[in-house]
Amino acid sequence: MVRPGGGSALPGLVLSKLAPKLVYKTLGSFQQGLVVVTGTAGKSTTTKMLVAIARAHGLEVFTNPSTANIEQGFFSTIIKQGNLFGKVPGQIAIIEMDEGHAAQVVANVKPKVSVILNVFEDQLDRFIDPALVRDKLLTVAKATTGTVLLNADDQNCLLIAAELNQSQTKYFGITSEVSIAAKSKLNYAPTYLPQLPAPTATAEVVALQERKVTVEIAGKSVSFDLPSRGLHFALDAVAALATAESILGESFDLVKASKVLDEIPPVFSRGEIREVNGEQVEFILVQNPPSMQLNLDNLAPELDQVFFAIGRDVHDPSWMWTVDLANLKHVSVVTGFNYADAALLLRYNEIPVEKIEAEYFKAIDEFFKLPKPKNGIKTVIYSADSMRRLRRHMGFTDPEDVQRV
Amino acid sequence: MSKSLKLAALYPDHLNLNGDVANFLVLQKRLQWQGHAAEIVSLTSSSNLSDFDVVLAGHGSIAAWADIKRIDPEIIKNVLNFIDSGKSALVIASAYDQLAEEVLGSKNRTGSHRSEFVKTSEGIVGYLNTDSNEEVLRWHKNSLFTLLHGPVFVKNPELADEFIIKSGLVKEIQPNIHSIEIDELARASRKIAFEN
Fold this sequence. Notes:
Chain A has helices at about 10-20, 20-25, 45-55, 70-80, 100-105, 125, 130-145, 155-160, 175-180, 230-250, 255-265, 290-295, 340-350, 360-370, 385-395, and strands at about 35-40, 60-65, 90-95, 115, 150, 170-175, 205-210, 210-215, 220-225, 270-275, 280-285, 305-310, 330-335, 355, 380. Chain A is an alpha/beta fold. The radius of gyration of chain A is 21 Å and the shape is globular. Chain B is globular, with a radius of gyration of 16 Å.
């Protein structure tokens, strides 16, 4: 009943009509409570890392797949994992929540711990103004009964923290030296207010070189390889470690946690590299301005073959015009439901495009028929809808079927 | 290249929330195709607008406008003076609201928010994300006010050409090979907007 390839909200929609309170009852039933991971960007990767660390410490965890982060998605997950009465196994629930829906959920079931990752200028056709996103995240933070973990480097998070009881806040972050040296920048939504002083982070990224990251937490230091390159993945990792330390308390083992992160595969299409027709292909999901910007900034240099698809999920493609495309040097095929807007973006920015193809599956087939590139590997850059269609078309239907390269 | 034009984007770090500054990229390219060089300048002050041929005031967040008005309290007056001088400004979404508020003296708001693609009676397509009750598209003197956020000229190159002519930058648009594919893609983009 749950559609292969990533889409998973529809069965939940049916159940939500039949038993609207079931999701809250289920999420509120875990002995060690509910942990909510929310914010604009990095929810899926942070949740996957946190869940893996918690499981490595022996906790039985209920979680949601990355594509099921709105209310109907929670119902779908319960259908898959629970019994007839919505009872699902697990000691703790660690749930990724869309920032728009999280406020509604926490009105019905209070999290014990919440993680507020960031606020970017994103989905403004839906959220209108970044200040309104911040308000929604504040609602989540205020509903939290225990610890709220916040990004020390995002002024939006500090404004949220100012409204909370300081004894319940903890911070994670990246040292300014690492941020300045990084290839990409985390451009959080500006508040245009006097800068609030950065609080002391209990967990901090202190070094980053390609995928190798060093994190300091509770006076100890540890190094490991991230699943993919990029400052944003380092932020996800430090958020996951800080949260795991908070949840697990004295039983938290930093070495064990770092070993988990050293081996964890990426969430699908977040810098995922897999073999297709005997050659390696990188799959990159771009969902919003920050994810497109960060992923383009971290593109491998001199790529011969790039597939660029913007699908139906991008309701209003205006935001693509806020992204700096300087690192995108060439596109082999531009396609997807919004192929025309994507092609206009590339043409006006004078990025060479070999083919504009309105028919999506034809574009996929032609791209994968291209001979192996001389420079780099085939690289697929796509939005969520294009990702789902491509994965179904290619038969990559299991979200867990992601290898670490 | 017979003319070199200067296009001033006001506070592009603040007023580009939906890619509004891309409208200048469209103008720049379309002017080039008519044989005119155009330079895009980022402005963080409104005190010398008369030095420029065209001014763009884009859409910004609530916080962005509060900051601009703090550092440049004369901005609305300066943009209105520029428009009254007969030069062309492109005024988008919240900038339109700000100027309308100044001119009309009151907020022209419906109280309910609309977030959707719309098509005007002239066939202009764009995204409306506002509670403003102003006209979606309005010419005043040689300036264009629109509630359609983001790169409205990308979807509507005919509107960009009309703007170029009204601004007096070019007397008429000559057919050119560069715009054929672009205009075809823009037609497809306008159609797709209502298929989702």
